[in-house]
Amino acid sequence: MIERSQFNQELYSSIAKIIIDAKTQVYRSSNTILLKMYWEIGKLIIEDEQNGELRAKYGKSVLKNLAAQISLEFGKGFNERNLNNMRAFFMAFPIWNAVRTELSWTHYRIISRVENPEHRIQYIEHSIEGNWNTRTLQRNIDSQYLGRLLKLPISENKEVPNFIKDPYIFEFLGIPSDILQTETQIESALITHLQKFLMELGKGFAFVARQQHIVTDTSDFFVDLVFYNYYLKCFILVDLKTHK
Questions:
Q1: pLDDT higher for 95 or 239?
Q2: Which pLDDT tens digit goes with each residue over 141-172?
Q3: What are the domain boundaries of the chain?
Q4: What is the DSSP string of 186-202?
Q5: Domain 8-150 maps to which CATH number in 1.10.10, 3.40.50, 2.60.40, 1.10.287?
């Protein structure tokens, strides 16, 4: 084991940063090439389809035969299903400049299935900003993430970034829906799955305390969960209730 004193820590950190940056650039470069290739293939398929017969007949014959021939030459990555994905990719993003190369091909396969064009752009932005992996992206689409965001107006005609949701969905807790749960059981489950809970809360949330004791002039009580949000620059107090 090399002791810290045997090498220059600052030199090591500088070299490590160069290596990490280079690997990131290599990934982005190769990812860009891959996405552009799939986009161009999708474009050629759409152009050929538009110049040919109806989509239904085209999909059953030409695309299937095309996939078989390309797969024979270049491998299974170009089977009929993937060619359909490339076709959907181009249909969803007919302008190449709208494709953000920070995301992977799997991200775009998922986003291309979103029907609303505006929502597709928003999911791209949220995925990049929140560093969503493909599982998180799929989960947020399935749980209608965009439809649950609230816009909260504030003074001076400005708005808080829309990342507060209504409702929140906690299917990841694994609590049976047909069994009545106590507030304490729900609280314990949320703490156990804290990482997923924070992800569902959204941007800027940090966990502060559980069962925080608060004293007022007239009484004292315990807040179930306390978070801090650095976008709102305030504490968020969560009081769990199983009834209205």
A1: 95
A2: 888 778 776 555 554 555 555 556 666 666 66
A3: 8-150, 156-238
A4: HHHHHHHTHHHHHHHH-
A5: 1.10.10
